[in-house]
UniProtKB/TrEMBL annotation:
Pfam families: DAHP_synth_2. It catalyses: D-erythrose 4-phosphate + phosphoenolpyruvate + H2O = 7-phospho-2-dehydro-3-deoxy-D-arabino-heptonate + phosphate. Pathway: Metabolic intermediate biosynthesis; chorismate biosynthesis; chorismate from D-erythrose 4-phosphate and phosphoenolpyruvate: step 1/7. Phosphoenolpyruvate binds at R114, K309, R340. InterPro entries: Aldolase_TIM, DAHP_synth_2. The keyword Transmembrane does not apply. Keywords: Amino-acid biosynthesis, Aromatic amino acid biosynthesis, Cadmium, Cobalt, Manganese, Transferase. The keyword Cell cycle does not apply. This is Phospho-2-dehydro-3-deoxyheptonate aldolase. It comes from the Eukaryota. One of its GO terms (molecular function) is 3-deoxy-7-phosphoheptulonate synthase activity.
Amino acid sequence: MSTAPQIQKEWTPSSWREKPIAQDVPYPDQAKLNQVLGKISSLPPMVTPSEIERLRHQLSLVQRGEAFLLHAGDCAESFDACTHENITNKIGLILSFSLILIWGARMPVVRVGRIAGQYAKPRSSGTEVVDGKTVLSFRGDNVNGLDPNDRVPDPERLLSAYFHSTTTLNYIRGLLTSGFASLHHPRDWSLNHVRSEVLRSEFEKIVDGLSDALDFAKTIGVESDRPYEMGGGRGTLGEVDFYTSHEGLMLPYEEALTRELPVPSALKAREKHHYNTGAHFIWIGDRTRQLTHAHIEYFRGIRNPIGCKVGPSMDNEELVRLLDVVNPDKESGRVTLITRYGAKKIDTHLAGHIAAVQKSGHPVVWICDPMHGNTHTAASGLKTRDFAAIIEEITACLRIHTECNSRMNGISLEFTGELNDEGYSVTECVGGSMQMGEEELGLRYQSFCDPRLNFEQSLDVAFMISDFFKK
Ligand code: PEP
Ligand code: MN
């Protein structure tokens, strides 16, 4: 194999179109698709270069071990679940989780939600059999419908995805600027949902401690003049930041949201970059990270911080070549590697990946996704994940990084604060402090994609990680 550096051809937002593409969506009506894409490309950006640059900077702090990254949300959002309650509960859970980490680890947490655009799903097969009939697989709300009779890809759904994303984002910005996210009111985020006495009292202890700390800081006059991350205005000690992300799977959509814009004036006057304005952070899935294919081509040219899933099929050398392509200047904060091997496989792969990246000199943020390598089908036929396997992968990840003189810089979770009408959490993963059994999965299984940790199970994970960093 040649080791000579490869000369990259010029990048444009559409240069990915010349490459083979994995997980492509076969639209029957190309003219309609182009019309919709034209419309999306004329609509306003959802996020701004200054927000994106700020996240890049914050991720460089994460990479240096000065902050922790929390990447979390649904496997897939749906248009129907875009409601006031669901969004509030999701943000509440992300805030509660991060507060536990901040309190235990005494480190800032960078919060990136899988939200406001996480509508596309990769599939292992293009078709599936439903009630004895072969139909196209469901690819997420921005492609086709969950209903087996609604599986023809419809370009109009991309426009709907844009508007559902902006609606979600608008509501999040509202929540953040109207005091909901203020660290002065953490009781507003979650306690109603936490049914376990132990978890409730652990969380209460943190909230009481935090209240005291904030009062003390106010009394002695400590106020931060850090700019407010989303929504403008000036931040204070009691406020938090929040960013959005999704898998950058549908390249025609991502291209339509890519704009060449000046970098914020405070950074470098007159310099312009291509920003993906549909989210602050987008990631490459485990099924679309082929080095010479379309997704890597698209991702290498955008200025946003990006993620890449790394699973058991990633070869050490391939990982370094991927980093060379997407981050040739080895910039800190640009790339986050989201490792997802499964509890049984992490020991075989992670140390080799860390060693290869260390030798290459690439600065990366390493985060652990303990969800995607730990999915199995329960006897009832429901897809589930075992809480014990999730904890096992996180524990192994923390240990292996330490052994390799590296650091687990964050966590990537599929969780939900969603409740049913009676206020009960979902039942999609087994185990946790609430000891959910397999036979209970059917009670409130609401995911139409991968199974998510519920409120209590998520807080269990938060306390476990927080305890590790406390030591
Ligand atoms: C996901 O994050 O929902 C996903 C599909 O992950 P992966 O690409 O790692 O399989
Ligand atoms: Mn998933």
